[in-house]
Amino acid sequence: MAKKVQKSKTKGGLKLKIVNPNAVGIDVASGEMQVCVPEDRDGECNRCFGSFTCDYEAIASWLKVCRIETVAMESTGSYWTALFFFLQERGFDVVLTNAKDVKNFSSKKTDEADAEWIMLMHSYGLLKASFHPQNEARSVRDLARHRANLLKSASKEVQHMQKALVLMNIKVDNVISDILGKSGRAIIEAILRGEHNPERLALLADPRCKASTETIAKSLDGTWDKAHLFELKQAYALFEFIHKQVEECEIEIEGLLVKYQAKPDTDMAQYIATKKRIAKKKCHKL
Known about the structure:
alpha/beta; 53% helix
């Protein structure tokens, strides 16, 4: 847990206290980790490591030798994730902070300078830990984001289907609100099976459609170009496959939610309790 900044009065005025004497700063990148410990811990206090698991082992071993207790790193993309949890498992108190909070104001910006700056700010308690869920909550969040990405991919395939239909001058989307609803699916599947008669295709539409059967038939009178039919076939197959993936993802999320309900996330509970205390104080001030 990140310690708060402390000040002390001196003859020269207020000065910041070192609240994390055994702190280290890590500048995270995709291929390397720049690690800086206090100068009194090692002659070479600012070292560069790789990003493989063996390099993480080397980092953890070096930090143990240097008597490091707490680690601060930036939330750079997804590169921080593996090292963050690796060091947590090795018993270090790891603080993940927003990159904006550790902006380096030094004249020369290098990885070494960034790591040293992170270490210095963390030693004075100037870094605020970013909240991120633990246990099943983190897994649910990751899978929920994955599900959202799958749905975005599915929506692109819908656009590809619409484009293929338009190129064949099939304007069914003008008379049916959702081309992948009950009526739209029935018509598209019949087209892909080889049925290209507009009147017979129009009969597949749900009777509750606002457009008449004659109007729907007119919208289905197309050119039936082979290349565009092939595009429609592949786009529809991809759409169906992605939605099967979404269903599998939802089943996995449901399983994690059952575990999460059985085992409450203490970090999440603490976070909510802190937010409630802050809100209560604000109400008292008002």
